User: Fold this.
Amino acid sequence: MIFVFWLIDRPQTAALREEVRPAHRAYLAKIADRMAFAGPLTSDDGLTTVGSLLAIDFPSRAEAQAWIQAEPFTMAGVYEKPIIHAFENKWPQKSGFPPA
Assistant:
């Protein structure tokens, strides 16, 4: 089942995000074959990162929750409380997929 992770950064964590990003990307790479999409949430200027949005296939909610708890941004304190929802895609992607 696909789970969507809505992850908003804590205030004043931009420098910490940059510091931890290599570990975050390496962690994501381990499950790249199960990822529907992933990327930063930005302010309207498109430049300022305010969080992340991830959609990843997991066998269960428990496994999705365990995965996000061990995620480097979570462990470093970049994210506020993660919000996780099961997701069913009912619309074929036409725009923005695959990444440019």
About this structure: The chain has one domain: 2-85. The chain has a mean pLDDT of 93. Residues 14-29 form the longest helix (16 residues). DSSP finds three helices and four strands in the chain.
